[in-house]
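anyone seen this seq b4? input:
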Amino acid sequence: MKALKYLLYAAGALLALLVIGAIAFALLFDANKLKGEIERVVKQDTRRTLKLEGNLHLAFWPSIGASMGRASLSERASDVTFASIDSAHVAVALLPLFRGQTLVDQVQLSGLKVNLVKRADGKFNFDDLLSAPAAPAGKAPAAAPAAKASTVQFDITGVRIEHANVSYRDLKSGQQIAVSDLELRTGRIASGMPGKLDISASIRGAKPELDAKFKLATGYRFELERRTAELSGLDARISMSSPALPQGTVTVPITGSAQADFGKGTAHADLAMKVDDSNIRAKLGVESFAPAAYNFDVDVDRLDIDRYLKSKPEGKSAAEGGKGARAGGAAAGDTPVDLSWLKGLSARGRLRVGQLRVEGLKLAEAKTDVRAANGRADLAPHSASLYQGTLAGALALDGNTNRIFLKDKLTDVAIGPLVRDLVQRDVIEGRGNVALDVQAAGASVNAMKKSLAGNAQLALRDGAIKGFNVGEALRKAETLVGSKSAQTQAADRSQKTDFSELTASFVIRNGVAHSDDLNLKSPLLRVGGAGDVDIGNSRIDYLAKASLVGTAQGQGGRERAELRGVTVPVRVVGPFDALKYEVDYRAVATEALKSQTTKKLEEQLGGKGAIQEKLRGLFKR
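predicted toks r here
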């Protein structure tokens, strides 16, 4: 027993000596003497310059810890700063190390600044820090030791980051993102243990333009052995500001959950968010981390896209916009179109919107399947209800050629309100079908219009063309017989030409839609015609030829049998918002005179057949 007692005394004395020695070492050891050696080793191994400007402090009991003041690290082989920090502290509990546990009391960082750069060759300015150091010349790398099951348990009481700033630049695309005022706090970080995360930051960017504030609070849990992590009770809020937004700022609250499996390289989230009056449910997923591939299923109750688009400058007409485009390609007021963001994107999913407003159009139950790959996105099939009819078709966006393809069919739609909402002009009424099969390419909306190509068909019933009354023109033709010039009048919305049927087809080349098969029918009229609709320059030049086949009373005229069969040429010309109608009454008078002369000959010679017999007899002589 005495031996044991003496042994315990000796052990206690030894422990006391070790403690006293550790305390004395901590008090007498000056870590700052190592600063020069640390900077030299970093320079030698990484070709980066490390500057330890602040003091170093080491602690050994009751935890092993280190604190440092201001420090910075340069870019490789450069004096440009890659990262810097105002202060940092980390401490590891000593006694748990003897039990195979790594228990970090807390990690604190303040004033962190990091400048991330993606070079034109696709490499990052930190790639060299992630690669293993090269073996000395002439020396083969040492064989890796046999893997052993690790019994070390990773456990951090918490992480705190304050006043951090991170910037990112892509030298090839010009994209820039700056994260400032980054604040992060975590609870316990240990495998299988729940924790709480709070993070906030301000974000500004270019290409795309971005100015936002971000706050997030969520619970988390991760499993190191299974390489999985999950977020629960996620509550985030994003506030985005832009001069393009009508209200200047929009705030988006987001709730939900997310999971990730880093072993399989997959992740998915189930989120709910509200943007102004829009309630959105979204299931988002990553099918593969490398290469990145995404999937989604998004359901929106209502969405007004026009609310977030810049309105046209007041007082600027479509014709003026066309002139600006002709003068300089993508002129002031023109909208750029850049589909290059599709390159490298791999995604598939579904999108449904209960009520949708876009470019003035109102749609209901809009839905589409989306697939993006190889620089191209296909929104097909897509469908919607609109203006008492339906829409169905396919839309494709090609980021490789900056080209858009559209193939749509509108069935049994009310064309009047559709046109009024789309172009803000009251020019036509009726109900029927419209088919489009077109494509366009260009760097702006105006360039797209001028490159438009394809074909279109129109078939309407029981409607009217507004701005001009052909029946009234026929009535005037009777009183203007002998007129030696055409008469021109501006479009008058109080005037209209009714029809029971209207069909036309268009061949579109270089933004100009040509038609030569207009066929308008009514109890009074038959109208054919040919001409061009210049979509790129917002102008029209179309010659319609109207013939009287019935009574004129239904169109505001009087019954004039002598005008039946007479063709009235009506040229529609001018910019879309200032159309003019030219009626060639001289041609009408000439044709009317021919018609009357022929009719009198028929009466004198015994009818139309008699005239033909006389002519045949004349030529036989």
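Residues 198 and 217 are 5 Å apart (CA to CA). The first helix runs from residue 2 to 28. kinda curious what u guys think
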